[in-house]
Amino acid sequence: MSKLTEVLLNLRNQMCRLGNPLFFAFENIGKDTLAGEWSAILLDCGEIINNQQIDTGEAWRLAIDKNKESMPLEESDWTVISEFGEMLGKSDIQNQESVLDLARENIEILEREARETAKINGKLYRNMGVLSGAAVVILLL
Amino acid sequence: MEWGKSDNRHFIELLSSYLPDRIRQAVGLINGEYINKLEEIRIRKGLPLMGVFAGFDYFIGEKGSLSDNPGAALFVSPKEIESLFLLICEHSVYAFQNEIAKGFITLKGGHRAGICGTVVYEGEKIVAIKDISSVNIRFSRQIKGCAQKVFPHLIRNNHDIYNTLILSPPRLGKTTLLRDLCRLISQGVPSEKFNGLRTAIVDERSEIAAIYRGIPQNDLGPRADVMDGCRKSEGIEIMLRGMAPQVIIVDELGGTQDAEAVRRAWNAGVRLIATAHSYGVEDLKCRLGVGKLIGIGGFERILLLGTDKGKRWIKVMDANGNELSFLDQDSGMHTGLFGLHSYGNKSVKQACRETAYIVKTNRGSS
User: Fold this and answer.
1) Separation between Cα atoms, residue A104 and residue A83, nearest integer Å
2) DSSP letters of B101-152?
């Protein structure tokens, strides 16, 4: 998730500062090692936009569907990530900046929630481990 | 290459990635005889699909049939216009917002999509066009060799040319001629023992080079540098400072700022080839700014373009307007509406006189 936040910042720069068309922006970021596990989705999306006559939102969804199995995210996370593609490329620079900022905020919320869940789950599993250990000791006695 | 003998199919194939399904199919089914005459595809929201074929309008049916009857044509849906707009913007409206504000987008192959809709102002400046209502796709063609005959008249010696101004009314091929002159100057003409020169093109309206994704879509020779979408006055300055050109090429000189920039280029020892809308030397002299570039110390060669009974002519003149040569052979260039609608030389001259009269009268009264 934190990688995706970096990707979105990079995308904002490619689109709103450099004025690169989407397919080119996706290709540039996808080729960069900083994109990490998001690289495949970005490259696929760029290729679909460049070669097929379909909407950007649809291209983004297709690229996600193709690659999401290899990434450890919840279905609810994918829904949020998919939605942001709908507005990409359809308006002027100012509006695109807002779209990307909003998407980044949403991703940051998801990331925070994921950290909290991981923290809670961590505590839970630790406690369960202790209790299980205690139960085993009691049984042995 | 002669107009009408080119194969438009490859243009259509090139453009097919921009056209929505129904429109692509309809255009693709147009009879081969007509497709080679196709100049423009006019696509309007909620209105019949139209093509301009060698100057004449026809409505295009779903199966590629051509008719004068709009009822028989394919009607373009609002969704199709929206889709077309996104396709010509490569799904990246933000990346083309400056071009959109100017009213056109250059497509792959140098073709051009003109855009109409509701203009959005920010102060005095147009910043966007929203609610796109129509798109006009105009085919661009480079006619290599169309300047071959006139070129020897512009050579000073084997490594220098005369400062030259091309004049004509609209749609007679000034830019086409300028583009080919640029190619010849940049690559050199061995038959004339003319060596190529470093050529800088200030392409304010993206018509000379037709830059697409940073690559000129027209062949401008190996020594050409292009400053695309830049105002002429600023572009000439930048080129002089940065690219050390031997020749500068600009299209459609107009205001006093342009004239001052041309003077600066001459002061820097750089030759300049330019075009201007005009019906003749006298007409141009009436203009503010550019008018002062005519005569001694100004452009050394003037090319006046015209048509007579559908045949193009080019008159080569010196700085004083004395005729040096008259080329009346068909150079293979499109004769434009004047030729196609059989407006002869007489009509053009009459139009020239009327325009010049109106210009003078307006000057006098103001």
Assistant:
1) 12
2) HHTEEEPGGG-EEEEEEEEEEETTEEEEEEEEEEEEEE-----TTTTTTTGG
- Looking at chain B from residue 3 to 42, which residues have their Cβ under 8 Å from any Cβ of chain A? 17, 20-21
Q: How far, CA to CA in Å, does A95 sit from each of A85, B85, B111, B127, B319?
A: 14, 18, 28, 13, 53
Tell if the CB–CB gap between A95 and B94 is shorter than 8 Å. yes
Domains of chain B, residue spans: 9-138, 151-365
pLDDT in tens, chain A (141 residues): 778 999 999 999 999 999 999 999 999 999 988 888 899 999 999 999 988 888 899 999 999 999 988 887 888 888 888 888 999 999 999 999 999 999 999 989 988 888 888 888 888 888 888 899 999 999 888
Does the model's ipTM exceed the 0.90 cut? no
Residue of B nearest to A14 (CA): B95
> Which fold, B9-138?
Beta-Lactamase (3.30.450)
CB within 8 Å: A89 and B92:
yes
* CATH class label, B151-365: alpha beta
Could you tell me which residues come within 8 angstroms of residue B255 by beta carbon, excluding any fewer than 6 positions away? B288, B289, B290
Q: Is the pLDDT of residue B350 over 60?
A: no
Q: Tell me if chain A has a CB within 8 Å of the CB of B318.
A: no
Residues of A in contact with B91 (CB under 8 A): 21-23, 49, 55-56, 59, 88-90
**Contact call for residues B16 and B84 (beta carbons, < 8 A):** no
Residue A105 is assigned to a structural domain of this protein? yes
Domain-located, residue A128 = no
Element (H, E) at B276: strand B271-277
